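User: Can you predict the 3D structure for this chain?
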Amino acid sequence: MKSTLYRYRISLGIFIFGLVVSGLTAFPLLRELSILSAAFGIDDPGNYASYSGLKHWIAFVHFGLKQTYTSFPFIAYGTDWLAFGHLIIALFFIGPFMHPVRNAWVLYCGLMACAAVIVLALVCGPIRQIPFYWQMIDCSFGIVGSLPLLYCIFLTLRLRKENSP
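Assistant: Here is the predicted structure, written as structure tokens:
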């Protein structure tokens, strides 16, 4: 059977990996939306009104981002900072990765951040006219992210018991 520390590090490593991937994918948003539009068969995002459901939303966002980046390229700097923030947050989890018991507080902070993702999506989503189904996708990041953190907290308590005299 794998050791408690091994399982802890695998679980936290998955969480860190998710943060890094989320960060890296925030840089090339327009390119990603071009690929996503093509995958959904959206030839002209400017014709977003002719689509419905998820295709409408993807085409609408693609069109809006394309127009914004063309006229106001500095807006992309905001998502660059979003990406940077994800990468820096991932760095904070290296402490608990190396020393789980000593840095358990970071796990609790991460868990609170996961809960805040849900609050932010449900409060700001309607204000920004984000479709409800997309708000649910955003909420899922907080829910899915909390699972490895909760498991790590459970394993941290076990590690504390295993290492106590």
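The chain has a mean pLDDT of 96. Residues 132-163 form the longest helix (32 residues).
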